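Async update (no meeting this week)

Hi team, since we skipped the sync, here's where things stand on the single-chain job. The sequence we agreed to prioritize is pasted below, unchanged from the tracker. I ran it this morning and attached the output directly underneath so nobody has to dig for it. Comments welcome in thread, and please keep replies under the output.
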Amino acid sequence: MIHKQEKYGFETFSHEADLCVVGGGLAGMFAAVSAARHGCRVLLMQDRPVLGGNASSEIRMWIRGAHGENNRETGLLEELALENIYRNPRMNFSIWDSILYEKVRFQENIELLLNCSCCEAQMQKERILSVTGWQTTTQSWHRVTAKLFADCSGDSVLAPLTGAEFRMGREASSEFGEDIAPLQSDEHTMGMSCLIQARETAGPVSFIPPDWAYKLKKEDFKNKIDFSSPVEWAQDNFWWLELGGMQDSIADTEQLRDELLKTAYGTWDFIKNSGEVQADNWELEWLGMLPGKRESRRYVGDYILSQQDVRSEGKFEDVVAYGGWTMDDHHPMGFATTEPPTVWHPAPSPFGIPYRCLYSRNIENLMFAGRNISATHTALSSCRVMATCGLLGQALGTAASIAIREGLSPRGVYEQAIPELQQTLMLDDCFLPLHGREPAAPLRRARLSAPSGNAELLRNGLDRPCGENENCWEGEPDEEILLDFGEETKACALRLFLDSDLNRRSWGDRREYLRLFPMRCNLYLDEAPLTMPGTLLRSFAVYADSGSGQWQKIFHTENNRRRLVVIPLSLPFTRLKIRPIASWGGERVRIFSVDVR
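Output:
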């Protein structure tokens, strides 16, 4: 609902929502989409013209997450990755932006405000009533009234506007018993970067630097990059072009951007013109004008995640997401030091992250996800990577939908609905360490059969390989899986959890950074387009028997590109039949799980 008024001579538009999400990076996107898919009216306010935050075309940081075999983040993130592989096999950033945009813009129940910067909040004691943003393109104000608010802005813009408790800087090692933290607390953070992307060409390309670029020497790159051959440096996204950790990573951003640009252009000048680097056939394709940030304000929730929690695998009873990146603690001096730019402190993969880190301790209807969760500096050095942030956003949006439906506060979800939240996340294809999805009652009583393979694996509640167990039914194309319920059954949907090749082994000898997420860094001359994972089921059909003994086809696709496929069931049935026809490349067909509820 939109109403007009005026403020300072400019029009003010009033909006109403169940959930207002501020910030449109992966965390904010996934919070908005997951809440909307579960029935919430959502407004997403983003201060940039594109979505994706650090992953967008404006910054182009590649998405990273948990290390290790079969630890790939699924849910909305894998849905996004597979769509990008299908639609954008050459990893064009303009197409990537369109995929991010459509995921939100055309999702039912979401109103999207781009180019709109949140700058005011109206409070009633410890509760947010509304927030107001200024939209630069329309020169208008937008006031959003909502039941719940989610800050996914990275910089925690709602903290100073609402009085929410937050931290900024590094804790002393004694406060949480963290042996990788400094002895004394300080205000230092990890810095920000303007990234570089290069393109290999068929012949020599010259580069004339701007007069204001820094003149850099070989010593400036000590411990940062191996310039010995393109094999070494051309798979680097120049993440170590980093400044700001010794300054205020919010207030000093404009000044730091200027320094980063001087440094980044100076770096490319060194690569092209110093004679130290084999780069004759490489040209500057793109250089970011908007710094990508790693750390600034962190909210204080009911629990503060620490180094000890990460190291002990985060075995919380309220786990709603997981990390698995090393504790990658960047040197606050960044490019200004010749010391190693980061220290990779070991961390287990995966480790659980509790729900209590996703809502404010003192503002009763404020939630948050992304790099601003309730964590110490050292724990954040692992949790801040974008795949982890995306999982946190999906957990937030799912929790918000439960809170809205049941009339609960964010803390009330912790007190009353954690099992439901966890089961809902797993039903939406979010893996939770040490947890299994509980089959619904209709599936528990059904008789499962198939001509070959172990059909019982389809209801064990595990949707990926775990250790030596594949947890996957495998058969020949056109072999039919039968679900016989023995009586008339009503359900909303059949869910199929398919094999999207979490380790991307079907890609053969692809460069490793592409296996981690399909976003390119520098572009090689011989770079072949991506292909869909060979194990993913491409073509299949589903049939239902309403009790007459006759099969009716209720679903058929020749072009599936999702790992989780949700098929509506509008009529009662006594039996269901799944006919896998072909995968995207494998000779056999594979399904991890089915669910009927």
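Quick observations from my side:
The two ends are 33 Å apart (CA to CA).
The mean pLDDT is 96.
Reply here if anything looks off.
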